[in-house]
Structure formats: C-alpha cells, structure tokens
Amino acid sequence: MSTCWLVTGADGMLARDVTARIAAAGERSAALTRAELDITGPDEVRAALAAHRPDVVVNCAAWNDVDGAETHEEAARAVNATGPRVLAEACKERGAVLLHVSTDYVFAGDAHEPYAEDASPDPRGAYARSKAAGERAVLDLLPETGHVVRTAWLYGAGGRNFVRTMIGLEAGRETVDVVDDQRGQPTWSADLAELLLRLGRGTLAGTVPPGIQHGTSSGETTWYGLTREIFRLLGADPDRVRPTTSAAFHRPAPRPAYSVLGHERLRTTGIEPIREWREALAEAFPEIVRAHRESRGTGP
C-alpha cells in the first residue's frame, strides 16, 4: 500500500519539489496552498486531514520574510509557531507523521563548528524566535511521530532565491559585492525534498526515530564563495565578485555569522546526509538558469 502525503504551502519552492518527488515515486499526495489551507485554523486543518487521510504531513508553509518579521512579529508567529502547533495537534489525533521544516536561524550563529542536532537554540530576532517556538510545539506534541527538519540557504528553480538573484546580477553588472563573513550550506530544494521523503517513509517503517534532523548540503562556504561558483558555472569571471562584510548591508534582522549544521543524527539512522553543495549546485544549475530566463522572457 502506497503512502499518502499532505503538503502544506504548496505554492512555495520546496513544496513544489516535494510534490514532484512524491509523484515520481508513484505515491499519492494532496498539495494545498495557503489559500486552500490556513494552517493556523484548527477546524480547517482537522477537516483537511479528515478529507485526505494522509500518512505523512510535510509542513512547508512558513513566514519567510526575515526582515518583515521584525515589524510583524505577531503575524510571523501565527504562521511559524501557531501553525505547526495546530498541525501537530491534528496529526496526533489522526496518528499521522509530521515533517516540519525549520531553519538554521534558531541558532545564534556564533559557533565555530557545526551545530549538532541537540544543540540548544538561541534565536536572535523575531523570525528566529517564531521558528524556534514552532519547533518546540512539534517536538512536545509529537514525541513519537514528529520531525523537525532544519535547513538553510535554500535555492531551486521554482522560486526567488539567492542563486537566481546572482544569475540576474551577473548579466547586469560588471562587478558584484557579496558578503564574505557569513558561513553556511547552500542547499538545493530538490535534495531536501528527497530527504523529506526518506524521513517520512523511514518513520512509518519504524527505522527512523522522531526528533530533529538537519537537512542541509554537506560542506560549507560563504555567500561570496557561493557567488564565485555561480559565476564560474555561468562561464563568467569569478573575479568580478568582490568580497565585503555584513556591515555594508544594513538589515533590520540579524543574520547568523556561522550557521553550519551537523548531520550526525542522519548517519546514526542509516540515512546518507545531503551531498556536497558544489555537486548539487552543478546538477541544479541548468534548470535554474532555464527557469530564470523563462521568467524574464529571454527564452532558452
């Protein structure tokens, strides 16, 4: 019997890749946009689970406007904290697995080695606080069937992201100044989608224990290092990318200086962590370039 999945936030980049991976595996899914399912409404969520009867719920719905959360913290908490709690309560009632996607921002970003899955969150800023609260709700309510899957620096063909932005800037500027004092793990949304499917199936089979997992690529770099690789893949001169500091770009919300996540817990469950970031970017790149050009009406 195939697994039935319910995916929230279905119009987002990650959710599109999750839905595509489910379809490719020949399994059933219901992909619901925010307009179709408000995850903050308990009655609405219960009705959706009753109608679709999922074995696994993948929560890709989120408030991702990091800076906007500083002035709209209540709205951010509704989606990032209340929503996961409502989903967890409904999944508990129906016995469904919940895979909740979270973020590296739950950490302060002042470490010097990869954050372990059991490291204590220390959120800085409204967005980070809202995501940390969502994590706690899922872990508290679903100790046997809940996963928090932290990711970071997500990019893909199906949405706005840093990689697509830099592709556009390469075509329009002679040089680009990019921050070189923030370190992280660029992660292809399709790779994360595949990991989510493996976690869902493993939890149903009893081979993957619930809890926190880190869904980021292996290796690490800075935004500057990532941009140089983007230019190289475009056939452009990487020396057109110039390093700068975070101080040169004032933002309302703080950014983690170091948000590299460890993957030891995946290894102990027998799941291979996501591959090295350069390998993934090279495979993803043609599709991302094509999507970028089509969105601008410039053709293949």
From TrEMBL:
Residues 6-286 form the RmlD-like substrate binding domain. Its EC number is 1.1.1.133. Pathway: Carbohydrate biosynthesis; dTDP-L-rhamnose biosynthesis. The keyword rRNA-binding does not apply. InterPro entries: dTDP_dehydrorham_reduct (IPR005913), NAD(P)-bd_dom_sf (IPR036291), RmlD-like-bd (IPR029903). GO terms for biological process: dTDP-rhamnose biosynthetic process. One of its GO terms (molecular function) is dTDP-4-dehydrorhamnose reductase activity. The keyword Nuclease does not apply. Keywords: NADP, Oxidoreductase. It is an enzyme of class 1 (oxidoreductase). It comes from the Bacteria. This is dTDP-4-dehydrorhamnose reductase. It comes from Streptomyces genisteinicus. The gene is rfbD.
